[in-house]
Each structure stands twice: as structure tokens, then as C-alpha cells.
Protein 1
Amino acid sequence: MTVTKQLYQLQEIDLEIESEEKSLNQKTSQMGERQALDNAQARIASQQQHLDELRSQQHGAEWEVDDMLSKIAIAEEKLYGGKINNPKELSSLQHEVSTMKGKSDDLENRALEIIDLVEAAEKSVAGATSELQKMEDEWQRQQQQLSDGIEQLKSRLAELRQKRQQLSEEIESQAVKLYEKIRQQKKPPVATVEQGICHICRISLSASELQRARSGQPVQCGSCGRILFIP
Ligand SMILES: [Zn+2]
């Protein structure tokens, strides 16, 4: 096998290593990423707070109804107790009771409205909580998948690095040095030649460049400086 063919193979391994490293970084950065879950949790917390406020309003409204009912009971006891005989006083008390009954109806209606709101808020908290549970399950599944993917990539990378090590030991050290030097400046360092043209910088090579490249010894493109490889 020619030296340039070996360098080309080395480059293919390097490209694969780079691509696997990119995937590994992507997957690693996705590990533990739970912004969507945190947002959903925050929404539930605020819904729960609203529900707590409504429940406290409900208790207040119910207390007001009870209070009004006991005031009515006391007034009615006076009214029908037979202790008051003055017609003016009786009529005024009757009026008071009927006013209080009107208020008590209003308070009951208000309490019922709040109970409806509480029930709606309870439903929405329960719905959001079960939705969050589904999201959590899905997240756990994805995290497991990511973690499996990361393990696979790591072992593939270890394999590739070992292969790279072996191959670079088989290649003439001068050629490897040249490859590494070019690679530090431009990637990829090896350019294939197709129909007499450097595949990367698209420059037509001279007859003598082509002839030297055909020998399989590393020849650099006169334009971009890459090692030319004729497949
Ligand atoms: Zn070139």
C-alpha cells in the first residue's frame, strides 16, 4: 500500500473520530437537561397556589354563610319566642330577618360560585400533574437512551483511537509528521485528486505534480498545500 493511501486511511479514521466526538459532546450536554420539566413544575406550583387561595376564599365564604344563618336563627327565636309583643318592634325584627335571609342567599350563591372555581382549579392541577408524570417517564426513558448512546460512542472512540495508533505506527514517521503538521492548519489534510484536479481547492494540477503524486509518496498541492491522494 502506498504512503498516501495510508495517510488517506488515517484521515478517514480521524474524520470518524471527529464526528463521533461531536455526537458524544451533543449527547453529554443533553444529559440532565430538564428545563421543560422545570417549567411544567413551576406552572403546577403556581396553579396549586391559586387553588390554595380559592380554598381559603371558600372557607371564608362558608364561614360567612354559617355566621349569617346563626344570626337569623337567633333573630327568629326572638321573633317567635313570644317575648316581644310590641307590634312596631315585631315588624322591625321581621324586616331585619328578611333582610338577613336575602344576604344569606347572596352569600350562599357566592360560596357556590367559589366551590365551582375550586373544582375547576383542582381538575386543572390534577391534569397538569398527570401530564408532568408522563413527561418525567419520557424524560427518564430518553436519559437512559442518551446514557446508552454515550457508552456506545465511548467504546467506539476507544476502538478508533486504537486503530489510529496502530495505523500511524505502520506509516513512515516523516509522512505522519507532515500529515499532523498540515492537519493543525487545515482540515482535512489529505485531498483526493479527481480528473487531475485537487478535490478540495479545485485547482488543476500540473503534469509533474500528478506524476509525483502517482508515485504514492506524499506530494503537497501547489495551491492548498494538502497531501494529494490519487485513488
Ligand atoms: Zn489543493
Protein 2
Amino acid sequence: MRQAKHRFFLAFMTVSLPLAGALLWAQGAGRGGSSSSASGLELSAINRSVDPCTDFYQFACSAWTASNPIPADRSRWGRFDELQERNNDILRRVLDQAALGREPETKKIGDYYASCMDEPAIEKKGAAPLETEFKRIAGLTSLDGLPELLGTLHGIGVGSFFDFGAEPDFKDAKMVIATLDQGGLGLPDRDYYFREDVKSVETRSQYVDHVAKMSALTMPVRGLVEKARFDDATSAADAAAVMRVETALAKGALDAVSRRDPVKVYHKMTTAELQKLTPHFNWARYFRAAGAPAFQSINVAEPDFITAFDQLLGSTSLDDIRTYLRWHLVHASAVILSSAFVNENFQFYSATLQGTKELRARWRRCVQYTDSDLGEALGKAFVKEAFGADAKADTLSMVKEIEASLEQDIDSLSWMTDATKKQALVKLHAVENKIGYPDRWRDYSALKIVRGDALGNSERANAFEFKRQMGKIGKPLDKSEWDMTPPTVNAYYEPLQNNINFPAGILQPPFYSAKADAAVNYGGAGAVIGHELTHGFDDEGRQFDAKGNLNDWWTPEDGKAYDERSSCLVNQYGSFTAIDDVKVNGKLTLGENTADNGGVRLALMAYLASSAAKAAKELDGFTPEQRVFMGFAQIWCENRRPEYERLQAQTNPHSPGRYRVNGVVSNMPEFQKAFSCKADAPMVRQNACRVW
Ligand SMILES: [Zn+2]
């Protein structure tokens, strides 16, 4: 259940965090999904005492935020969480049925879910399921054995020291090559190891406490393996060692803003060149242990990080290395071990870092893990229940209309020369789209699921996925694969494939409903489609061409004009306060903000050009244009805990919902006109930004 998302995966929102056991999941009863209004807008969410021209988000959402407090087991609660909750209810029904074991087709997901739900069995085992890997780690008696050990640990999903996987070659995207990247940190981002403000210093000390507590929980099994006795001092020393190792790794790691630049994370070299970087680590043996096929060249995303890794090996005791590996094994396994591990993991990653008050109910967690590990087997059953041919056809026609709007938009740009426009259209016309679910479902027959072995199932699922990734190296790219499971409430653009992807999970109310007014569907699902399409042309996406290759198709003057327009957005969003003294990071969120701004404009253009708009009248007290903006704004109604707000501002490329709404509409003369805002109204920016 520990899937690493690759770097340039541009999602509509962040629904998961790089934190074990801290994934967001729904809670509460959910609210039915269908609005009682004629348009499909949530009229009860609106606060009419607020002037839409003063604060559009507050107008569209603040009655909702007032009546929808964050459930105790959540760090955030928004309207898309309500939707995910409804999808989860379907998944739970499917899994409860499958767990009875009557249907051969759903036996695997049923066994997986039933094993995860069997709390008494998991409780009884305690830390014992760690024994095999603890023995393996204890068997590391010289640095010479590290390549084999890491190959094995990575193979079962234990992140440590670096990430190894498969990825399209940036400069020849039709082929998949091996890739090495930074990894092996327990805090959310490399900057967490170095920030000196009071809050950050406190977080580090809480992290060290957490590592010590986890270490203490493993002492019984470790004592057995190492035939020794341990005490609190051992745990404290363990935590200090982990912090030393991770800080050294973090020093060599790139920051999140730099990692958005594809040029900074593409360093293709031969395996011989890679070997020269690390006198202390033998790559050929590691690749063999990891089960990789033979290959000659590899993308070493961050050579400086690999050098730092080698220096660390040269200057760190074997004791510290074993301690670090034990920690990452426990960290990666915690959520599926006994309650002592689950609770301690929750305490740091959910309570401390995100402000969540309570652990999520077991079934919610088990639904989530089944989705992570057997997503396409579970998704197949979900699609049967929740996604019809009509929704697919409707979405497809909306995609076509929005693509036509972008074509028109590109044609009309005053700042772009004809040469670049021509190339932009070539790229646009090459965008492929995938809607709902895969044409061909993943075959899990090689994955063994054993009833009663929850951790083993998780490790075997990770091994299955790792092997699948290894199998791609050296082969042509398969664009039909999905990076999200069908029930997911999200969407993405993949620059290395130049395609947009919309899981069935998001093509539901409030994003889309066959019964809703077209204007509201364009404001919801239409804005998501426009957002993903615009990603192909944001500051990152624009560096890739129609075939997904990192290849500059811009004239220098157009590139410069683009950067000037982009920097307007950097300044605008960088001026928004996330929480207390923490601002939104304008550079980190630039791609998403560009996509949000472009997305709404394209959705509005497409709506106005549609047949539905021709005959549209006022509905629920709103004009058709107003309903497009309202449909968009109401996706983002949400409440966030302060701790979550801080974490997101420091790690998430997406802005908070309120700025995703107000940041966009305040840049749009179309909004000003639709709501008859005065020229000096707060929702009318004097220096409106516009890229697309
Ligand atoms: Zn996005």
C-alpha cells in the first residue's frame, strides 16, 4: 500500500500525502449527493449576507463551512470528501460481500479486506510479523551486504535511502527506462530537517520522540532476534541515529520547488557512470537483487543526492545503518500491525502533523488499503455499480468542447507568435483522454493473498507492484495504464504521455450529474477537464512536446513572454496567507494555479459555445454564467485544521480551496461582468493575471 507517485503526475488535488498512515479518508454520514435545487447547486451552502464581489468563496460556501465541522477523524472536510465518502460506502458494500468468499471473481479483494478487518488476529501477533525482516537486517554485518538487503526491502515496499523504479525517458518518452531518485526520509519534505522557526524545531523533536516510541514497540521481537536486552536508552539512541542519517540524506536532496523543473531531475547516464558516483555501493548487485532486467542507461534524477548517499555510507556506522533500516521497515508496516503501532503512527503523522483528533474506523482504513493494493480489482466492481455509459459519453463530449475552447483561446492570444501557436496546436491535437476506467483491467493472478496474513498480503502486494514496475524497464511505454484507481475523486495530466485522465470516482455530483443544469456541470467537471488540459501548457507541462518529450517548442521571445505572465501568478498567490506566518508558496503552486485559472476560463468558454447555453435562462436565482462560477466555487467548500493548513502550505503544490476560488475569479473580467462587480471591488484585481 505504499505507492510512490512519480514526479510529474499533475493531479487536480492532493488526496494523499507521502506519510504512512496519514492518507486522507472520508468520515461521517455523507450527504446523499443529489442537491434539491433545480440547477444542482447547493443552495444551502450559500451565505447571502456576503457580497459575491467582496469574497466569492465566502458567498458560495460559508453557510456550508459553518454547518459542516471537520469530523474528529479528519484533518480536512470538503465537498469532494463527501463524494469520496459516498464512493467508499459503495466499496464497503462490495468488500463486505466479497469477504463472504462466494464469488471467485472477487475472492482476492474479499480475502485481503477480511484479513485487514481481522483485528483480533492482528492484535495477537503484535510485532511478530516483523521478525523475518529484522533477522535479515541483523544479518547485515558489513557494508558489502547492503545492495542485496536494499534490493529486498525496496521489493516489499520499504522506502529507504533512495527510490528505484521505472519511468518514461524524458527525451524519448515512448520508452521506459530505469530511474533513481531521492528518498528514504520520514518527515514530509527535506526542508523539515533544516527550518529554524520555533514550530519546525518542535516538529523535529516530536518526530524524534515518535521514532523512539516506535523503536520501543519493536524491542520484544528485536530482543528475540538479536538475543539481547534493550531499554529506553536504546530507543532514544535509535531515534538520534535515524535523525542523523535522514538529515545527511536531506542535505543532498532537492527542494520541492526545484523538483518541479524537469531539467533539474533529468540526468541520464550509463550504469558505469552511476557506479563512479558511489565507491561504497555496488549498483549491479543492487539491480540484480531488486529483480531489474539488464539495462545500460538510467535517469539518475539527482546525482548530488546519490553522492550524498555514498558519503553517508562512508561515514556512518553499521549500527546506525541497521537502525535506520529497522525504522523504515516499521514505519512502512505500522498501519497494518497491531494497535500499538497503528496508534503511535497516527499520533505523529495524523494528530501532530495534521491536527486529526481520532483514528479512522477500521473499515475505512481497510477499504483504503484494498484500493491501494488491489485497486483495479476493486475498481472493476465499483464501476459496475456507479458509472454508466451516459456519464462516459457526456464527459467525452465535454472534453471535446473544452479542447475546442483551448484551440480558440490559443488562436486569440495577443502575446504569442504564430510559430509557437502552431506548435501549441500540434500539442493540443495530440492530447489523448481516458475516461472512467481502464480498457484492460490489471491481471492480479500472480499476486498471492492469504486469509489471515494482513502484513504478508501488503508486502506481497508491494512486491507484485515493484516487479510490475521492474518489468517495464527497457520496454515501450504502455499509455493505457492508469495511475489512479477508478473510485478516486481526482484527475491528472501526464506530461510524459500527453494525456488527461478522469477516474469514474470524480464524475459524480457535485462535479457532474446527468440531472444537473449544464452550467453547473461545466463549472464542476468542466473546470476539472480544463484544469488538466491546461497542465499540458503550465510552466512545467509546456516544456514537454506533443509526444511527451522534454523538448522546447517555444521561440525564445514567447518563452520570455510566458514567464512574465507566470510570474504575475507567483506574486498573486504568494501574497495569500495559509496560516499564521506561513504564506502560500507562489512558486510551488504555480503549475496548479495556472491550471485552475485556465481551467475555469476554458469551461466557461465551452459552456457559452454549447447548445445548452443557447436556451439557458435564470435558474435558482442565478444567470447561466453565474451558475458556471457557482458550480466551480462549490467544489471547493471546505474546512481545514490549522496543523493541516501548515503542512499543506509547506508541501502541497495545490493552493487552499478558498484561494483556488478567489484567486481565479478575481483574475477574470468575465466574473466581474457576470456578478456586476464594481471596478474597485475586492474580487476585481487591478493587476489581473492571465496566462491562458
Ligand atoms: Zn492539477
